[in-house]
Design brief:
three-stranded parallel beta sheet; alpha/beta; Rossmann fold; globular; 3 strands; 3 helices
């Protein structure tokens, strides 16, 4: 819920936000994709990074991509293949620690790019 609240603050007109990182953005309540929580995202002017599991019940990466097409600010999506809302992946996918490390690396690289 932290990302959702942060996005609402950013959408309210706060102008000195360098960038926003969302870890598992709750695009809609689980099982209710028609109840999107995204309209305010159009008002954000800061760059955004969304880290989303492909199996997130709060909004899949594909659902998020459709919403991102409407954004006015730069936005990037980093997908955790087979990941759920907490980025947990099946054991057959590989070590969970490697997933978390890839998320940390992506955020670090993205922040370096935003802080130019």
């Amino acid at each position: 819920m932290g990302g959702r609240i942060a996005s609402q603050v950013a959408a309210s007109g706060v102008s000195d936000i360098a960038g926003l990182v969302f870890l598992g953005y709750p695009l809609h309540p689980p099982g209710r994709p028609e109840q999107l929580r995204a309209k305010h995202l159009l008002n954000i002017k800061s760059p955004m990074l969304f880290v989303q599991g492909s199996r997130d019940t709060f909004g899949t990466a594909d659902e998020l991509r459709r919403v991102m097409n409407e954004f006015n600010a730069p936005a990037e999506l980093f997908v955790i293949e087979s990941g759920d809302h907490s980025f947990k992946v099946p054991k057959s996918t590989g070590p969970q620690g490697a997933v978390f490390e890839s998320v940390q690396d992506k955020i670090t690289d993205w922040l370096r790019g935003v802080a130019k």
